[in-house]
Amino acid sequence: MEQADSFQQSACDVLKQRFGYETFRPGQSEIVSAILQGRDCVGVMPTGAGKSICYQVPALVFAYGDQLGSQNEWAFLPAAALTIVISPLVSLMSDQVMALKNSGIAAAYLNSRLTFAQQEEVLSRARAGAYALMYVAPERLADPRFLSFAASSGSIALVAVDEAHCVSQWGQDFRPSYLGIGDFIRSLPVRPVIAAFTATATPRVADDIVRLLGLDGPLRMTTGFDRPNLRFEVEQLSDKKKLARIAARVLANPGESGIVYCSTRKDVERVHEALVAAGARATRYHAGLSHGEREVNQRAFVNDDAPVMVATNAFGMGIDKSNVRYVIHHNMPGSLEAYYQEAGRAGRDGEPSDCVLLWNDSDIATCRFFVEQESGNEALTPEEQQLVRASQRRRLASMANYCMTTDCLRATILRYFGEGEQAGVEQGLGLDAPQGCGNCSNCDGDVDAVDVTVTARSVMRCVHELRGRFGKGIVADVLCGSKSARMREYGLTNKRTYDIVSDSPALVKEIIELLTAGEYLEISEGRYPLVGLGPRAREAATDEFRLYMKRHRKSTAATGRAHMASFGEGVSANMGSSGASNASGAVPLSTEEQQELFERLRQLRKRHADEEGVPPYIVFSDAALRAMCALRPATDDEFLAVSGVGPVKLKRYGKAFLEEINGER
Description:
Helices cover about 45% and strands about 10% of the residues. The chain is of the alpha/beta class.
């Protein structure tokens, strides 16, 4: 018990001295305590909740033990134990190690970018106890040299698995290389503590993580998926209007950092070209670019030289940039897991940030095509591949529902991940919108819930009459009374449901997608998807059935909120009045003087970052700069009171920042 208390005190000392934080965030203390007591853990924590602290702090306690009392020399002493961090992307390793070194912590990474000699040097230094943490890619676990190092080392105290959902075939980003982690752990001469972390795991995926990694009675800590500082917005727009909306948001605050996700390389090129032509400092990232160009562009974004990144989903996993103020999706992703992970790259520093999803019907068709064209994992049987594909279709239906629902967008996300009073209930279909969060486009008065129950019942009758033999285009044409030749050719003009609705075919197709999202209908696989009845079809015939569709208010544009304005001052004003900043704990800048000081501190931060060759957010986060503007520290002790400032950063940057804050320059 005394040892546990000693470790816990050491953890608090590390948190303050090395990372500059007075207290742990929710869930962090429990995970750190469990790891220090030798217990395996699974941490399901949203992006920005501080997953890395959960293994970095124990790593330092394991490595340096009682020597933590020395604030000047302890980081350079031989390590007593090593923490291995398994991370899927090289960019994450580089940024994490850079940030650790900036805080005076001995760390290294081992990946394919290092030469053979450099890799040997890292392993040699690790054997000598030079590092507290070493980051490796999952593929490295099969390297004979690394296996030899691990097998001969009895000093591995902790194995931390980042992005642990990649181990599960039911997750949105399954990676076969993750399946080897369990075997690697079992091969070690002394079993270390295992801690697995992810931001997007449903209960089923969390169960897979425990089973496939061989965790032993782990603490399962889910801190909650809610990110109060994020404002969620969804709007259905044509491709042409999407581009205009994105350009307006980017140009409204040209110094802000943001990511624009596109589903295809072609769209990335088109959006990037338009933003650059409009005067935005934007760069791009997709698999069609050379490795060198991707590296240069990524570094320009991370260093704030090109604040806007236009990219496919090949970009971002593992990017540790904390000051991303908005993430815009030009296209709908294929699952809520993927969307929440990508959108969650906004506001990692806790500052108010926007997550905007623009979509149209063609996005759903594109996602459905990708699901059916995916080759699958060769390690799975044909039956298992069919199950995985069926799971992907269900995730796509939930994603489409998020776009269409009239429910609170935040509540829809939380229910999907098993949180909230209605966890496990279908998200928002047939339900009146609840009180809501007040910080999403469905809750702030921009949209109306239109009752489309009558048309929805007609769709169900038509699909039943056609016996699932046609796609949604034919279903819509039948209901709307199309006079096309194929109606007569197929004998569809004689159907009882022919020409019984007055809505447009486009609206009917949207209702078909909404019914599919609720599992009232099913859309088949194949090149020509067919619409049939789903497992909940009978429920649509009951008196209780209601279906609502979202419609943006036409008068909104006149109020300055919709379309172009909603991506500029309109969004900023809403963010300031929505309560998001208070809910997230962010410090608002309430005066013009504070705003001016914030900009000067950003410029000072950029100069230091450029001199040291590190990203600006590694020097200080935006949240720390805002706190400096509000607190106006004048002494070293007052500067240390700023969250995110520790002794190392005080020594390195304190004099320059205190002079800037107090007008001594």
